[in-house]
Amino acid sequence: MSGGFVTVARVGEIPEGGVKVVRVEDQAVAVFLVGGAYWAIDDICTHDGGPLAEGQLEDHVIECPRHGARFDIRTGAVLAMPATSPVATWQVKLEGDEIKVGWA
Ligand code: FES
Q1: Is residue 23 helix, strand or coil?
Q2: Which of 50, 55, 75, 83 has the fewest CB atoms lying closer than 10 Å?
Q3: What residues contact residue 11 under an 8 Å CB cut-off, 6+ apart?
């Protein structure tokens, strides 16, 4: 599969501090708007598959609704157990009012 970007939402669809779950190549991807910038991570907790977008978001930190692992949505880094592996991040760019998510 070669790299590329796909349009997943339009500006205005995701409120500040909000999230939208989209599908990219059969992957569930959580797209957040925080501080005026968009961030995208796999919507699958690396601990046990929890739906991260359903968790509590505080600034750039999302808490898994299942067992409370925390990740930085900018880097995917684990900030709290029980997860030990980072969650995959996606690149996001704007083209006009289209929000695009891509992979390398
Ligand atoms: S599935 Fe996310 S912390 Fe367990």
Answers
A1: strand
A2: 75
A3: 94, 97, 98, 99
The answer to whether 104 and 93 are in contact (CB under 8 A) is: no
Q: Can you tell me which atom of ligand 1 is nearest the CA of 65?
A: 2
The minimum-distance atom of ligand 1 relative to the CA of 69 is 3
Per residue in 26-65, pLDDT (tens digit) is 999 999 999 999 999 999 999 999 999 999 999 999 999 9
Radius of gyration (C-alpha) of the chain in whole angstroms: 13
- Its pTM stands at 0.95
DSSP per-residue string spanning 91-103: EEEEETTEEEEEE
